[in-house]
Design a protein that fits this description.
47% helix; 8 strands; alpha/beta
Length: 204
Amino acid sequence: MMSLRNEKLTHMAKALRLDPGGLSGWLSGIQNRLSVEKKDSISRHLGLSHGYLSPNIVHKWTTDAETITRSMPILVSKYLLGRMTITPIYAGGQPSSCAYLSVFGSDVIVIIAGPRNTALQPPIVDPVQSGWGVNGKPAMFSVGEVENLMGSENLAAADIYLEITIRSQSKEKQSMRDWANLITDAISSGLSIDEAKNRLLGSF
């Protein structure tokens, strides 16, 4: 997870107010270096729950396609992995990142993955090589919208899931906003996220 997030041990130790030596020792396999409470705080920080990616939060990774290909079957349940859509995100007409989206029941997985630096290609996994996922249509955003997407800490996973799905289906901004309002109303009326998605896709 630290590799996927491109996060240094010292940064995580500082963010969680942990002793870097104790954290390093625990990550190296030394038992009893950290309390149960501290281990739980590490899991939450990394976006993990019971060894899997926590659903219903937005995961932001800075990594490469090879690492995602290798890690996803370990981090995502087979039910969610089997429904994973790989959606390239375009910023101002250029590929900038990639969204990995899945929903099963009430669980929504949203991962937005960008390259480690702008000189590299976005981390877009090839489903043929990985053995999981299906290709989605590119989602079109402006440069500013993608910066907000990557920079905001208060994103609801269901909202982002629907926004990216809508943007991959329509290129007209006014149309996208109309569809977003329609699906928001549908969910408010009691539809599940999966039902809302199906209603959206069936309307195009």
